[in-house]
Amino acid sequence: MNRRTLIHSCAVLAAAGVALPAFAQGTDPENTLYLDLKQGRVVIQLLPDVAPKHVAQIKTLARQGFYDGTPFHRVIDGFMAQGGDPTGTGGGGSKLPNLPAEFSQLHFVRGVCGMARTSDPDSANSQFFIMFAPAPSLDGKYTIWGRVVSGMEYVDQIKRGAPGSGTVTNPDRIIHMRVAADVK
């Protein structure tokens, strides 16, 4: 089995909720993100074989420090936590161009990281979400770009928003988000 096939197989298994051995859990520093929250560090395995353009954009923004200090502005208990908007309104993004959809056969399960967008499938930019629970209704409609391999207990502690809308008053914020290869 070649490296690409192995990575894809691990991603499919992980998205299905299958526990992976340590060697398969984001040990490539160039394709691992450290998401630092006040609660602790979340480690995210990036999936460049699944969504290469989305992974590249997230890495570029993380390297620019774009995500530092941005709020989790929409957090719905039992569903997901959404962040990556510097305005905290749900309407903001970066100065980089929007991305074309990179939908896959992977499933939105607990710990999966997806890209937020408008009703236009090709409108993803900087906003992302982390799943608290499975949401099959999102499968094939949003781009999956990563998955939490460590620290999901810290994601679970992100302040929840109002019932229904998920809008968060005085939201928790990302302290730092960095590509692991850049962290000394």
Order of helices and strands: HEEHEEEEEHE
Our count of domains comes out at 1
Report the radius of gyration as a whole number of Å. 15 Å
The poorly predicted ranges are: 17-23
Q: Pairing-aware structural class of the strands and helices?
A: alpha+beta
Q: If you consult CATH, what is the topology?
A: Cyclophilin
CATH architecture descriptor text: Beta Barrel
Largest sheet: 8 strands, antiparallel
Question: Helix content range of the residues, please?
Answer: 10-25%
CATH class assignment: Mainly Beta
| Termini separation | 32 Å
Choose one word for the global shape: globular
Order of strands across the widest beta sheet?
3-4-6-5-7-2-1-8
The tally of strands reads: 8
Mean residue pLDDT: 90
Portion in beta strands: 15-25%
Q: Report the total helices.
A: 3
**CATH superfamily label:** Cyclophilin-like
How are the elements arranged and paired?
Layout: H1 3-15, E1 32-37, E2 40-46, H2 52-64, E3 74-76, E4 80-83, E5 112-115, E6 128-131, E7 144-150, H3 152-155, E8 176-179
Antiparallel strand pairs: 1-2, 1-8, 2-7, 3-4, 4-6, 5-6, 5-7
Summarize the entry for a quick read.
With 184 residues, the chain is an alpha+beta fold. Helices cover 16% and strands 21% of the residues. A hairpin with a 3-residue loop joins strand 3 (74-76) and strand 4 (80-83).
Could you explain how this protein is built, in words?
It is a single chain. This protein is α+β, with helices and mostly antiparallel strands and 184 residues long. The chain has helices at residues 3-15, 52-64, 152-155, and strands at 32-37, 40-46, 74-76, 80-83, 112-115, 128-131, 144-150, 176-179. An 8-stranded antiparallel β-sheet has the order 3-4-6-5-7-2-1-8, sandwiched between helices. β1 and β2 form a beta hairpin. The chain is globular and about 35 Å long. The N and C termini lie far apart (32 Å).
